[in-house]
């Protein structure tokens, strides 16, 4: 009797497992079918036959990004010789080649293609930039020690400013960007001298209907503000057209 009873139990368990497995397969089949159908529909929305032309969605408003400006710096040197090949493949509104730096005597140095390699200044290189952007600004770089020498006298500042303004006019570009860094080492006097230089340069550029861009440090808290003499509010009344945050 015990043997017959256990057989019935085993049989019942087997039937139960079979029915449960069948139900699970049925449920999974339905879910899998639904997932395959959904995925197929999604793929139909984003793919097209191999031998057909890709169809791009139209922008709802063609003027949506008309005021968006994308800027990029260009530096001279042998490590950047792929520029001529790369420029036609990207979309940049404004290009800012570094064509000047401050020399160890406080005077500007023109970074030519002949003296500094690829992307240095030449008529050919500047023409390439104009063909691949709407606007061009000439970037002026400077180390802290050279910057201090530039500010050594008002006469020297005026001489260097004339060089920059003449260059902008002769080469028909939009203006100048000043990129003097090492902000954390500037003294209060250095900063005052800097503001004076920016005022003189911006004034002369505006007389010629040209613009001035100024690069400054990223400041996102009171603690970071304590790192620098630099105060963005100081530029509100100066002849500066754009402030570029180095962040």
Series of secondary-structure elements, N-terminal to C-terminal: HEHEEHHEHHEHEHE
Q: Report helical residue fraction.
A: 40-55%
Low-confidence stretches: 34-57
Distance linking N and C termini: 86 Å
Question: How many helical elements?
Answer: 8
Classification by helices and strands: alpha/beta
Question: Which properties best describe this structure?
Answer:
7 strands; 16% strand; alpha/beta; 247 residues; elongated
Protein architecture, described:
The protein is of the alpha/beta class and 247 residues long. The protein has eight helices and seven strands; from the N terminus they run αβαββααβααβαβαβ. Strands 1, 2, 3, 4, 5, 6 and 7 form a seven-stranded mixed sheet that branches. Helix 6 packs parallel to helix 7. It starts with a helix and ends with a strand. Mean pLDDT is 83; it is low at 34-57.
Write the topology of this structure.
Blueprint: H1 2-46, E1 71-74, H2 83-86, E2 94-102, E3 108-110, H3 113-116, H4 123-131, E4 135-142, H5 144-150, H6 154-171, E5 175-180, H7 188-207, E6 211-216, H8 222-225, E7 242-245
Helix pairs in contact: 6-7
Q: What is the structure about, briefly put?
A:
The protein has 247 residues and is an alpha/beta fold. The protein is built from eight helices and seven strands, in the order αβαββααβααβαβαβ. The chain is 45% helix and 16% strand.
């Amino acid at each position: 009797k015990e043997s017959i009873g256990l057989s019935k139990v085993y049989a019942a368990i087997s039937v139960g497992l079979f029915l449960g497995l069948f139900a699970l397969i049925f449920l999974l089949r339905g879910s899998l079918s639904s997932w395959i159908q959904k995925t197929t529909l999604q793929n139909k929305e984003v793919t097209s036959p191999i031998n057909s032309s890709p169809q791009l969605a139209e922008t709802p408003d063609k003027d949506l990004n008309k005021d968006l400006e994308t800027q990029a710096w260009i530096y001279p040197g042998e490590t950047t010789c792929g520029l001529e090949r790369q420029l036609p493949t990207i979309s940049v509104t404004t290009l800012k080649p570094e064509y000047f730096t401050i020399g160890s005597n406080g005077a500007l140095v023109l970074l030519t293609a002949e003296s500094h390699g690829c992307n240095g200044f030449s008529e050919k290189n500047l023409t390439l930039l104009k063909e691949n952007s709407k606007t061009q600004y000439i970037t002026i770089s400077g180390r802290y020690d050279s910057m201090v020498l530039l500010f050594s006298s008002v006469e020297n500042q005026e001489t260097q400013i004339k060089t920059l303004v003449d260059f902008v006019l002769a080469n028909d570009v939009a203006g100048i960007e000043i990129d003097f860094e090492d902000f954390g080492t500037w003294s209060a006097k250095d900063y005052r001298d800097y503001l004076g230089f920016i005022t003189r340069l911006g004034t002369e550029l505006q007389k010629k209907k040209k613009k001035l861009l100024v690069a400054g440090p990223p400041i996102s808290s009171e603690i970071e503000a304590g790192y620098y003499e630099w105060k963005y509010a100081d530029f509100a009344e100066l002849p500066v057209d754009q402030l570029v945050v180095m962040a």
